[in-house]
């Protein structure tokens, strides 16, 4: 809880650690988020005077702010819904996310028109609201850790308001190379980079993304100036995962999944290929399904003997392109089941309702983990599955995932666009022997847990305090 003198460590992010839903009887239900940042911040302890500034995202959140309901150590900003929608859906998720993940179909998009300029003004207002709240809440020389592409302008704006603060910014996404970043209008590109450079220190998940940012600064704003760059490859929280995966609800899901997987006609256990993602364009779920279909086509010996557990949880459904992608994922999964399925075998078990306990149950059952994004800041699923897979597992991993920098040596690497090669990689992964799989998973686990969230957070905090 922030004291009267102000908070000494502040985190700012669009999505906060709590969310609220209005129940039918009018009461508010509180939901708590997990994730690296939540466990990271917990490392500084309850007396550290920490404050998490985040945005109200739903009607429930806005209602909570209005009623003065909240959590100690969290301040939710009630930014007008239309301003937030323009900033979050319009700029952050449709422009900046697309730029950094290189998702545009460039012959027809992006189009930076008057509507974009209008939305940009909302993005500025939304960033300003964060900067003002942080300036108001922070103690003298406090450390402020700003998160992600939603808040690129905050460091610069906050620096003007409070030159005494230690300001850090961390990017959880990739950073686009200059040729792609340069699609942004010149003034906007400059504003984003200068906004970020208002920080004392910028953090990235891999060297590749840090180098791309540096190259953008050299190309568009004459270099980094006094801002320093750090690379902190967030790892998985093994203790939390192992504990959570033993709870009763996970055991229950395990039984249901085993039924859905079934047994091969010769009585042996079926192999599993597991993927768990938000239904996100960058995750490449459709090509993953096409690769699995190719495997069944090229290697008929796997028919009846393997099941693909594909969990694709809804994400950013306000955006039409995400809704269409979700529909395409369903269509391709159904098509595979119709073409290859038999009365006793459903080749793809697709689940689209978010259920963390079921994800953990699937991790425990994984023989093969499929993580094939076309571009990804890190990808924690690639780190989490090997920790929990009970018989060890082989990892098919895209070379475009940040996690590849750390796990590449012990994974089967794929070019995410190459469906035929991904099918071959799945075959290779499925034929990995049990001893090799167990050894592989051990090495993957060691690499995946090298920088647990608590240390990841403290390293950044200490570097920020010492270096500025
Ligand atoms: C990525 C971003 C996060 C974001 C998360 C979920 O991991 O780096 O900032 O919170 O996706 O996306 P959402 O739009 O649902 O917050």
UniProtKB/TrEMBL annotation:
It comes from the Bacteria. Belongs to the glycosyltransferase 20 family. This is Trehalose-6-phosphate synthase.
């Amino acid at each position: 809880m922030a004291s009267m003198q102000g908070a000494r460590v502040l985190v700012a992010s669009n999505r906060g650690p709590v969310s609220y839903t209005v129940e039918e009887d009018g009461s508010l239900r509180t939901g708590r988020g997990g994730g690296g940042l939540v466990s990271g911040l917990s490392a500084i302890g309850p007396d550290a005077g920490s404050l998490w500034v985040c945005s109200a995202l739903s009607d429930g959140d806005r209602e909570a702010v209005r009623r003065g309901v909240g959590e100690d150590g969290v301040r939710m900003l009630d930014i007008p819904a239309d301003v937030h929608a323009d900033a979050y859906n319009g700029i952050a998720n449709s422009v900046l996310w697309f730029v950094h993940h290189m998702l545009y179909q460039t012959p027809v998009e992006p189009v930076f028109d008057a509507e974009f300029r209008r939305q940009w003004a909302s993005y500025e207002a939304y960033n300003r609201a964060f900067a003002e709240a942080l300036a108001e809440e922070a103690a003298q020389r406090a450390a402020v850790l700003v998160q992600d592409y939603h808040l690129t302008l905050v460091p610069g704006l906050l620096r003007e308001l409070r030159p005494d603060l230690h300001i850090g910014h961390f990017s959880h996404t990739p950073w686009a190379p200059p040729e792609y970043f340069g699609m942004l209008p010149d003034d906007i590109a400059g504003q984003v980079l200068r906004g970020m450079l208002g920080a004392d220190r910028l953090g990235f998940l891999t060297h590749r993304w840090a180098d791309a940012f540096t190259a953008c600064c050299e190309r568009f704003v004459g270099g980094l100036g006094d801002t320093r760059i750090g690379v902190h490859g967030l790892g998985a929280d093994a203790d939390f995962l192992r504990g959570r995966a033993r709870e009763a609800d996970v055991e229950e899901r395990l039984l249901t999944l085993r039924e859905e997987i079934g047994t091969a006609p010769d009585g042996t256990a079926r192999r599993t290929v597991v993927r768990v993602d938000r239904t996100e364009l960058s995750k490449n779920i459709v090509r993953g399904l096409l690769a699995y279909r190719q495997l069944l086509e090229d290697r008929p010996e796997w028919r009846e003997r393997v099941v693909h557990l594909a969990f694709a949880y809804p994400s950013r459904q306000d955006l039409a392109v995400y809704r269409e992608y979700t529909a395409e994922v369903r269509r391709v999964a159904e098509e595979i089941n119709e073409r290859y399925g038999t009365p006793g075998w459903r080749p793809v078990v697709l689940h689209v309702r978010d259920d963390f306990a079921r994800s953990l149950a699937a991790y425990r059952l994984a023989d093969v983990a499929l993580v094939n994004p076309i571009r990804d800041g890190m990808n924690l699923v690639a780190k989490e599955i090997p920790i929990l897979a009970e018989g060890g597992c082989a990892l098919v991993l895209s070379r475009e995932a940040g996690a590849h920098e750390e796990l590449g040596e012990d994974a089967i690497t794929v070019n995410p666009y190459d469906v035929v090669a991904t099918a071959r990689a799945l075959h290779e992964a499925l034929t990995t022997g049990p001893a090799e799989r167990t050894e592989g998973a051990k090495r993957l686990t060691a690499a995946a847990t090298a920088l647990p969230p608590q240390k990841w957070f403290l390293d950044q905090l200490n570097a920020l305090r010492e270096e500025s």
